[in-house]
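User: Can you predict the 3D structure for this chain?
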Amino acid sequence: ICKSVGPEPEFNCMSDPLAAATVFNLQWLRRMIKVVREDICISNDQSQIDGVERLCQGTDILASLAQSDGHACVFDPVAAYCALHPNHIEWRDVGLAIDEESGLISESKASSCPAVKVAAQFAGRVEYFDWLVQLSQEKKKK
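Assistant: Here is the predicted structure, written as structure tokens:
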């Protein structure tokens, strides 16, 4: 799961754009790729604000991350949630291309860019934070 389509390259695509482009161009692998865009990860709605506040109440590593940076509980954790709970996300098929030099991901209608699943709507933000808090509490019990 990648985290960005837009003006900034996603971290992994920026780190090795040629490898990322190669992966996206492998037909057999492409159908397994799911992309979670940055705008799905970050939200300024009340459920995001409340969720970050709930995480900050804890004492584990997630709480520490949320306390230092409210965005630390998004991106990779949201991508993981989407992978583990794909039915909680609205997906759409989008043709994507990766620039082999910059790592920028862009939408493409070219036939050489078959569609991948892209998260279009993340309505389960409250459930997401419930999941994170539950994970945090389970780690305490162990």
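The two ends are 29 Å apart (CA to CA). The longest helix spans residues 125-141.
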